[in-house]
Amino acid sequence: MRFFRLMLFPVLLVSLAVHVYATPFTLFPKAGHLASPDGRFEVRDADREGSANEFVGTFHSLWLTEVSTGRSRKLCDYVGLAAVAWSSNSFLVVTQYVGKKTSRAMVFAVTTEEPILLDTSTLIQMVAVELRPTLRENDHTFVEASRLEEEIFFFRVWGYGKHDPDGFRWDCQYSLSTSQLSCKTASKITVGK
C-alpha cells in the first residue's frame, strides 16, 4: 500500500498544481500537442524511434513547431510525464518527472536553443550552504515549474527522505537575466507513513 501511495503522490501533485497556479499546465504525452496563445507555435509530443533491439515506448520527445513554416526543433526527451505551459508567446515552462523520486524544471525560449534547467544537482551548486544537506540527504526531491513573469521563473522544490522525514517545501525564484536564485521555506508537507 505504501508503495502505491509513493507512486501516485507525484501524479496527484501535478494534478493539484494545474488548479492551484494560474498558468494552465498540459500533461504530455496524453495531450499530444499544445498551441501558443497566438497560434504561431505548437509543442508536439513524439514517441522516440529506435532500432529493433532498443527498448522504446516509454521514451517521448517534445518538439517545438512553427505552424506557418512547419520548421521544428526538438526541445527535450522525457520519460513518463511532462507538464508544459506557455508563458506569453515566447517561453515554455516544463516540469519533467524523471522517475518516482525526482523531477526537474525547465524554461525554453522560442528564439534560443538552450533551456534553463533546474534540478537537484544544479540547485545544490546555487543554494546557500546551509540548505544543501536538504537536497543531498533526501532521496525524494522534486523541482516543479510554476510560472514565468517578466524574466522571473517561479518554481517550487519539495521532497522528503532521511534529512526531512516529514517533508520540506521551498518557494523559489530564478532571474533569467541575472541568474540569481532565491528560495524561502514554505509550509511543510506531510508524507503518509
Number of self-contained structural domains: 1
Largest sheet geometry:
9 strands, mixed
The number of E-state strands comes to: 13
Question: Helix tally?
Answer: 3
Low-confidence stretches: 1-22, 189-193
Mean pLDDT: 83
What's the order of the H and E elements?
HEEEEEEEEEHHEEEE
Q: Tell me the strand percentage band.
A: 35-45%
Helix content: 10-25%
CATH architecture annotation name: Beta Barrel
3D architecture notes:
The structure is a single chain. By secondary structure, the protein is of the alpha+beta class. It has a single domain, classed as Lipocalin. It is 17% helix and 45% strand. β4 and β5 form a beta hairpin. The longest helix has 19 residues. The protein is globular and about 50 Å long. The termini are close together.
Helix-strand layout with pairing:
Elements: H1 2-20, E1 26-28, E2 33-35, E3 41-47, E4 59-66, E5 72-79, E6 81-87, E7 91-97, E8 102-109, E9 116-118, H2 120-126, H3 132-137, E10 140-149, E11 152-160, E12 168-175, E13 181-185
Parallel strand pairs: 8-10
Antiparallel strand pairs: 1-6, 2-3, 3-4, 4-5, 6-7, 7-8, 8-9, 10-11, 11-12, 12-13
